[in-house]
Write a structure and sequence with these properties.
Layout (H helix, E strand, L loop, with lengths): L4 H16 L11 E6 L7 H12 L4 E6 L7 H11 L8 E5 L10 E5 L4 E5 L5 H6 L4 E4 L15 H14 L10 E2 L11 E4 L2 E9 L5 E3 L8 H6 L1 E5 L2 E3 L2 E2 L12 E5 L5 E5 L4 H5 L6 E6 L2
Parallel strand pairs: 1-2, 1-3, 3-5, 13-14
Antiparallel strand pairs: 4-5, 4-6, 6-7, 8-9, 9-10, 9-16, 10-15, 11-12, 11-16, 14-15
Helix pairs in contact: 2-5
């Protein structure tokens, strides 16, 4: 049956108003949902999550950030999410699942910023989002009307987080999922600790597939002037004093280890064509002593 032009225009205006009222997904067009997990790709887990999302919203467009976060490494997952999310357009919904506490009393949460939305476990995985974004609102998702049935105690990625993201992509308001909370979990030591004048205690927050060790040091803590005066990073008894602008830069340093500013804005410890992590026997969470010459 044909509809009158006025009816069509009214319906279009109504749909536009609905989208405007959805804080998590204001962008018109195809809903965009990203996935970040430690599931790997050998099992059915990622495919099952995508199937749930598309069953609820066949119009959704699902993008993989990565599924190769080291198993149960919440800090590495938190860093990777923070390094990737700003590259996505407004209205993107991010599902992050690194969840060693699945099935326990840890909460499922939905967090919104001014232009994006995040779904995942309340275990610190969203810590960098809370740190970097202003006006974040966080909701404890308890409304089981939006969960898959039956609910598995071992696969909340499929049964809770995927359907919540799909519901958001269809215009469901975050308030429908549960109450707003302010006591959400933040990981400790996201920032370096000041020890005394000229000394900081930093840490490794991620080791990438090349063996580069990403630290929590940014240009807020380490300036070009400090590097020029002389800066030493000590980890597992090894000292790094060399700084480079790019990996293949020529250097007179006898040690192949050096520090370099990475693309995510953090200082990294690296070794050209070698694994700095293997050379240092380093892993996520290792402490780094930073000393500057006065």
């Amino acid at each position: 049956m044909k509809t009158r032009r006025g009816d069509t225009e009214t319906r279009r205006r109504g749909e536009e108003i609905l989208h405007r009222n959805v804080s998590a997904s204001p962008r018109l067009g195809v809903p965009l949902i990203t996935l970040l997990t430690d599931f790997g790709t050998a099992d059915y887990f990622v495919g099952a999550m995508k199937g749930v999302i598309l069953s609820i919203n066949p119009d959704a467009h699902v993008i993989d950030i990565t599924h190769e976060i080291p198993p149960q490494d919440i800090l590495s997952g938190a860093f990777t999410l923070s390094a990737a999310y700003k590259n996505f357009p407004e209205g993107t919904i991010h599902v992050a699942v690194v969840d060693p506490g699945v099935g326990s009393h840890r909460r499922a949460i939905v967090a919104t910023t001014h232009n994006q939305c995040f779904v995942g476990p309340d275990n610190g995985l969203l810590s960098f989002i809370f740190e970097e974004e202003k006006d974040v609102r966080v909701f404890h998702a308890t409304n089981e009307d939006y969960f898959q049935k039956p609910l598995s105690n071992t696969f909340h990625g499929r049964d809770i987080f995927a359907p919540l993201a799909a519901a958001l992509s269809k215009g469901v308001h975050t308030e429908n999922f549960g109450v707003e909370i302010t006591d959400y979990i933040r990981l400790p030591n996201l920032k370096p600790n000041f020890i005394r004048e000229g000394q900081l205690e930093a840490s490794i927050i991620h080791v990438d597939r090349f063996g580069n060790c990403v630290t929590n040091l940014t240009r807020r803590e380490i300036t070009d002037e400090m590097i020029a005066r002389g800066l030493t990073l000590t980890i597992n008894g090894r000292k790094i004093t060399s700084f480079r602008r790019f990996f293949a830069e020529e250097s007179d340093a006898s040690d192949n280890l050096f520090a370099i500013w990475g693309s995510a804005g953090y200082l990294e410890i690296a070794s050209n064509r070698s694994s700095a992590a293997e050379m240092l026997d380093a892993r996520t969470g290792n402490q780094i002593l930073v000393m500057s010459d006065e």
